[in-house]
Amino acid sequence: MRRLPIVIAVALACGLPALAQPPAPKPAVQKAAAVKPEAIAPIAAPGRTLLSTKDVMRHIVNPAAEAFWARSGVVDDEKGANDRTPADAANWAISLDSAAQLVEAGNLLQMEGRARDPDGPWMKYSVQLTKAGLAGMAAAQAKDHDKTFDAGSAIYDACYACHGKYIPRPKDSLYKHDIDKDLEAAKKK
Ligand code: HEC
Q1: Does a structural domain hold residue 3?
Q2: Nearest alpha-carbon partner for 56 in 122, 106, 130, 1
Q3: For position 19, what pLDDT does the model report?
Q4: Secondary structure class of 81 (helix, strand, coil)
């Protein structure tokens, strides 16, 4: 068995939407990026970060993941089970592009000035995102249904692991567990 159902179970326990409906923010109306042209001007220094982690999430990581997820997995809709795996070259190309964006996003997250916790698991989770993106690229290049599904799941795991560690839960959260232990347990099953 795939481990997706467990991921979903953990996600549900945490009050998060499951893989089929990824942990999206409401993408509807978001404020424009906080970057003003004058902030971009002194761009010369290589390796200088320009966007906050939040804006990298909003404008790079999340849209890329959404685009990949929209083309992987099966969701139930009014017509029944809807397999979203691409059926044409144009959609496979979007899967490939979005997976590639996630590969490099893992690097962006590790940059000095952005890495929250350079000596902690931050780097590990960033690499996890890059690896999941690579799996997504390989799947899209092979136009492989099951690998696309698995890569979507791996991408989700990377988001979930890092958020569990670095986005503090409210004190009154119903989810009281240690995310690392839960993920470990989920893997063993
Ligand atoms: C290495 C750590 C890390 C990984 C991996 C990661 N995130 Fe994040 N994410 C964060 C942190 C930290 C924040 C909170 C940023 C802040 O509020 O300053 C965040 C915030 C967000 C937000 C909220 C942005 C907002 O508008 O407040 C979204 C959406 C998001 N991440 C999506 C994703 C998705 C989707 C993935 C996986 C494809 C992912 N993230 C992977 C660390 C990570």
Answers
A1: no
A2: 106
A3: 42
A4: strand
Give per-residue pLDDT as tens, 83-138. Answer: 999 999 999 999 999 999 999 999 999 999 999 988 889 999 999 999 999 999 99
Each residue's pLDDT tens digit, 22-49: 555 554 555 666 666 666 556 657 778 8
Q: How far is CA 110 from CA 80, 88, 147, 166, in A?
A: 41, 34, 26, 14
Report which protein residue has its CA nearest ligand 1's atom 29. Answer: 25
Q: How many independent structural domains does the chain possess?
A: 1
User: What pTM, to 2 d.p., does this model score?
Assistant: 0.76
Looking from the CA of residue 123, the nearest atom of ligand 1 is 1
For residue 25 and ligand 1, the question of a CB distance below 6 A is answered with yes
Contact 112, 99 (CB under 8 A): no
CA distances for 58 relative to 40, 54, 79, 131, angstroms: 18, 6, 31, 20
Q: How are beta strands 80-83 and 74-77 bridged, if at all?
A: antiparallel
Best mutation site among 163, 180, 183 for ligand 1 pocket (most ligand atoms within 8 Å of CB): 163
- Average pLDDT of the chain to the nearest whole number: 82
Residue 1 lies in a domain: no
CA dist., res. 162 & res. 117, Å (int): 11
Any domain includes 36: no
Contact between residue 86 and residue 69 where contact means Cβ atoms under 8 Å apart: no
